[in-house]
Write a structure and sequence with these properties.
alpha/beta, Rossmann fold, Helicase, Ruva Protein, domain 3, five-stranded parallel sheet, two-stranded antiparallel sheet, about 50% helix, binds adenosine-5'-triphosphate, binds magnesium ion
Length: about 325
């Protein structure tokens, strides 16, 4: 059954003008089909997945936005389930390649999602450990001949059973032909062939740089069949993230505090001179600063209620001093 068939449509009854005794039923399909489709997918995963998978998927589901990343996980889950069923019918099941590229601006959740992917893929039985080894250029590239291969091999060894997450991967192309970065890429791709199903490699970085990096390494895109774009967050998404972050810390944003952040974000994101914006990380920093400001404000007060201790007021939100 196609997804659209299970999305409830609204039936509108009208009286026909041509023959007054006939009732016309017009099926009105909601406009937000893609969202509904994802909702239906999540529900199916929730109702069919084993408990541990559900817990891991819930962690991803809780995050605001990130439609592409969520969709990839549902696809992998669906494929695994189909393969299990195919096996019962003695049908072929091909091994999939799960190496990925994450493209997106700072603070859009790339590292956080990679860590959660590790947990989900472990629960799904694709990875044996599901841990995340974070690496950057300096961890892979050596200083003399032979050093790079050794460093890269050592890292891959640590990542076995989990995810090797290479941040700012495009910097491996820095320095041109003679640079050892190229050797690191070669070493990595060789290891990916040799240990096809023992670890997953995720290359992450800012969108334009990653696209250029993939272009100058034509062998790479086919080795990284899953590419996920992490969109910049909209103001309302950033506010939802803010609410989530304060709740986790057992604080609350007063309505004027939330409004102050909203107005500020609208202004900030329209600023033509804003060159880089750290998305959800900016929100985290603003809130951490607010928690400190609230603590200072409360110093003057001897009798503190639970509300006093929880509520962040507009005056605690100090926006000018946090770097975007
Ligand atoms: N969708 C989201 N919902 C809730 N919190 C989020 C979301 N996206 C990011 N965050 C939070 O924002 C912070 C930054 O996220 P993260 O470090 O994963 O970003 P990143 O894309 O890896 O950034 P960078 O490219 O600078 O390394 C983290 O504290 C994370 O928990
Ligand atoms: Mg990161």
């Amino acid at each position: 059954m196609k997804q659209s068939a299970i999305v409830p449509s609204k039936a509108i009854m009208t009286e026909s003008t041509e023959s007054p005794n006939r009732i016309q039923v017009v099926f009105h399909h909601p406009a937000s089909q893609p969202v509904k489709e994802t909702d239906a997918l999540v529900d199916t995963v929730r109702s069919t997945a084993p408990d541990q998978v559900k817990v891991a998927i819930n962690e991803l589901e809780k995050m605001i936005g990130l439609g592409e990343a969520k969709r990839v996980m549902y696809e992998i889950y669906a494929l695994l389930r189909t393969n299990r069923e195919r096996l019962k019918h003695q049908l072929r099941t091909d091994q999939q390649v799960y190496h990925m590229v994450f493209k997106g601006s700072p603070g859009t959740g790339k590292t956080t999602v990679a860590r959660i992917f590790g947990k989900i893929l472990k629960e799904m039985g694709i990875l044996s450990k599901g841990h995340l080894i974070e690496a950057e250029r300096a961890d892979l590239v050596g200083e003399y001949i032979g050093h790079t291969a050794q460093k890269t091999r050592d890292l891959i060894k640590k990542a076995m059973g989990g995810i090797l997450f290479v941040d700012e991967a495009y910097s491996l192309a820095r320095g041109g032909e003679k640079d050892f970065g190229k050797e690191a890429v070669d070493c990595l791709t060789k290891a990916m062939e040799d240990h096809k199903n023992d670890f997953i490699c995720i290359l992450a970085g800012y969108t334009e740089e990653m696209e250029e990096f993939l272009q100058i390494n034509p062998g790479l895109p086919s080795r990284f069949p899953i590419q996920i774009h992490f969109e910049d967050y909209q103001v309302e998404e950033l506010l939802e993230i803010a609410e989530m972050m304060v709740l986790e810390k057992e604080y609350l944003l007063s309505p004027p505090a939330k409004e102050k952040i909203r107005t500020h974000l609208h202004k900030l994101l329209q600023d033509p001179f804003l060159v880089s914006f750290s998305n959800a990380r900016y929100i985290r920093n603003v809130l951490e600063k607010a928690v400190r400001a609230q603590a200072m404000r409360l110093l003057k007060n001897n009798q503190l209620t639970r509300d006093d201790l929880m509520i962040l007021r507009a005056e605690d939100i100090m926006l000018g001093t946090v770097r975007p």
